[in-house]
Structure formats: structure tokens, C-alpha cells
Design goal:
single chain, 351 residues, alpha/beta, OB fold (Dihydrolipoamide Acetyltransferase, E2P), Rossmann fold, Ribonucleotide Reductase Protein R1, domain 1, 3 domains, six-stranded mixed β-sheet, five-stranded mixed barrel, globular, nucleotide-binding, Small ribosomal subunit biogenesis GTPase RsgA, EC 3.6.1.-, NA-bd_OB-fold
């Protein structure tokens, strides 16, 4: 038998299951999403499950199960099942779907912490970390910056200067799979029953970190590329594994682009430390671009607020506003369409 409490099952989830029409069936957590099926960890083992037709064709891509979701399914045969329902999500890490204006893609669900992994080589980019942080705060997921491959050697003073505003906001860990003490500190930060997702670019060592935390090879990794001297991308899917002693780890494929899917820029102001200055602006609706009496611009000109942080703020704010406006327009159209369908049904019933 598998103890699902170790995978994060709790009384709140149990209550949600009892409210489902299918509350008497088997529940489990999605460990891997394949192209046409799902691997689900349940109390009696791991099942390979497909969706019912109603779920497959009656939901948007974002509403379909993703890694970390809790589902209810009907087992049949040996190790097979049909997913009939999904419990309401909370703390879902998502991003704007590539090639779209306001479509969201779910990366992992029921996440407690997200480790933003960057390697201390050419991959290090504090602007990318800021982007991840904003999205995580949107869903009340605790962001953690993990600066990996410290064994490569790096200019620590330069790095610390660049992430000074980040360290005031979130925990930061320096790690290397070749230095066990750094892995031990990271492992101590993961509590039993917590779910942690690893995000970052290809080649930063996410899978290797997961293996080191589990103290065994649970995920496939590649060696160092002879041509670039960097780790080669291995993960091609989002995969959930259980860490000995507690903690659920979700590895994700590397992403080149992480588009924000945020409706409110409030978290952005807080993360980039704009809020304190903005409160002193002459105008309450100040946009911090060219308004007289703008305390944010004054802080930039005096060197109190880093200019690169300020420019990052403007860029991310534009992206947030664009997504929010597009999302609002999309909802407006969906509401109008639903209203039209209801009117057609009423006419049909009348005749």
C-alpha cells in the first residue's frame, strides 16, 4: 500500500472529494502526464489512466489534469483506470502559453514551494528570476532561488550585488551536487508532505538536484556536452517523485520563455520594491514614467533604486497589463457567447 499522506493528501482534499459526485471511487495524484494518458499514484499502486470523453472534449487545455493534480478515477483491469473527475486546484504554477495572448498553461498543481534553479555560469539571469517570482506570488506559492553549480567558480560579490533586492524577498541557496553540505541545507528546507516544483532553463541541473535530494537516481540525466562544457537538457516531461523522509518533488523541462499570466501587478510592485517609493508619489495614479513628483523616478535618479530593476519593472508591468486586458476581453466574449446560447435554448424550449 502507498501512503498518500506522504504525497500531500490531507483532510481538506478529503472533504473536496466527498463533495464530488464520484466521492466513492478511488483517488490519486498525477505523477506524469503523457500525450494521451496519465500515470496516477493511488493507495493501491500506480495506474495508467485515460480521461472520459466528457473531460477530454468538455474542458480547455488549462482545465485538464497536470502534474500534481488530485483526480478521481475508476480502476479497471490491472493497473488501468479512467479519470472521471478532478479535485479543485490550489496554488497552480502556470505561465502564458507560447504563441497566445491570454491562454494559460498549467505546469504543476498543489505546489507549496517553487525552486527557481539557475546555474552560476552564462545561464545566471536575475531578470528571469524576477519573472518567475511574480508568477509564483500570484498563486501564493513560496519562491526560492537556487543558484546551482557553485563548484564551477563564480564572482560571488557580483552575483550578490545583482540579487540584493531578491534576497530581501525570498530565500536563496547556493548548491552543488558535488558538495553534500549544500544539498543537505536544501533538503532541510523541504518539509514532509510539501510539494516543491523545480523550474528553470535547460542545462541548469534541475534533474541532478532532484536525484541528489533523493540520494538516488530517480530521474534520467545527461553528462556534460563536450562542445559547450554545459549540462545537456534531459527532461522532456513534468515528473513527480517522492523524496525519502518526506517531500514531493516535481521536475520540469527547461523553458526558454516564461510568459507572465498575471491579472494584477500588485505582486510585481512588491517584489521589485516599488511599493514603498510609490506611496510617496505626488499623484495616487502615478505610472512612474514621466509624471512630476514621482518618488520612484527620484529614487532611480539618486541611485537608491537600481535602474535595471526599474526597467525590468516597466517591462514586466507592460506584459502584465497586456495579459490582463486580453484576459478581460476574452472573458467578456465568453460571457456574451454564453448569454447567446442561453437565449437560443429559451427560444427552442418556447417552440
Amino acid at each position: 500500500m502507498i501512503d498518500l499522506n506522504r504525497y500531500g493528501w490531507n483532510d481538506k482534499l478529503n472533504q473536496l472529494k466527498q463533495e464530488s459526485t464520484y466521492g466513492t471511487l478511488t483517488h490519486g495524484r498525477v505523477a506524469i502526464v503523457h500525450r494521451t494518458c496519465y500515470e496516477v499514484v493511488a493507495g493501491s499502486g500506480v495506474f495508467r489512466c485515460e480521461l472520459t470523453g466528457n473531460m477530454m472534449y468538455g474542458k480547455s487545455d488549462f482545465e485538464l489534469p497536470c502534474t500534481g493534480d488530485w483526480v478521481i478515477f475508476q480502476p479497471f483491469d490491472e493497473g488501468m483506470g479512467i479519470i472521471v473527475d478532478m479535485l479543485p486546484r490550489s496554488r497552480t504554477l502556470s505561465r502564458r502559453k507560447n504563441g497566445t495572448v491570454a491562454e494559460k498553461q498549467a505546469i504543476a498543481a498543489h505546489v507549496d514551494k517553487a525552486f527557481i534553479v539557475q546555474s552560476l555560469d552564462d545561464n545566471f539571469n536575475v531578470r528571469r528570476a524576477e519573472r518567475f517570482m511574480v508568477q509564483m506570488r500570484e498563486e501564493n506559492i513560496i519562491p526560492v532561488l537556487v543558484l546551482n553549480k557553485v563548484d564551477l567558480g563564480f564572482d560571488q560579490q557580483k552575483v550578490e550585488e545583482q540579487i540584493r533586492h531578491v534576497t530581501r524577498q525570498i530565500p536563496v541557496f547556493y548548491t552543488s551536487i558535488h558538495e553534500s553540505r549544500t544539498i543537505f541545507r536544501l533538503r532541510e528546507f523541504i518539509a514532509a508532505g510539501e510539494t516543491v516544483v523545480f523550474v528553470g532553463s535547460s542545462g541548469v541541473g534541475k534533474s541532478s538536484l532532484v536525484n541528489a535530494l533523493c540520494e538516488k537516481s530517480v530521474l534520467l540525466t545527461s553528462g556534460i556536452s563536450q562542445s559547450t562544457g554545459k549540462g545537456r537538457h534531459t527532461s522532456t516531461r513534468r515528473e513527480m517523485v517522492l523524496m525519502d523522509g518526506g517531500g514531493v518533488l516535481i521536475d520540469t523541462p527547461g523553458v526558454r520563455e516564461f510568459g507572465l499570466a498575471v491579472d494584477d501587478s500588485g505582486a510585481l510592485d512588491e517584489i521589485l520594491e516599488i511599493t514603498d517609493y510609490a506611496q510617496s508619489c505626488r499623484f495616487k495614479d502615478c505610472e512612474h514614467i514621466n509624471e512630476p513628483g514621482c518618488a520612484v523616478l527620484d529614487a532611480v535618479s539618486r541611485g537608491i533604486l537600481d535602474r535595471q530593476v526599474y526597467e525590468s519593472y516597466l517591462k514586466l508591468r507592460r506584459e502584465t497589463w497586456h495579459f490582463s486586458a486580453s484576459e478581460h476581453e476574452k472573458r467578456k466574449k465568453e460571457k456574451s457567447f454564453t448569454k447567446l446560447v442561453d437565449e437560443v435554448k429559451k427560444r427552442k424550449d418556447h417552440f
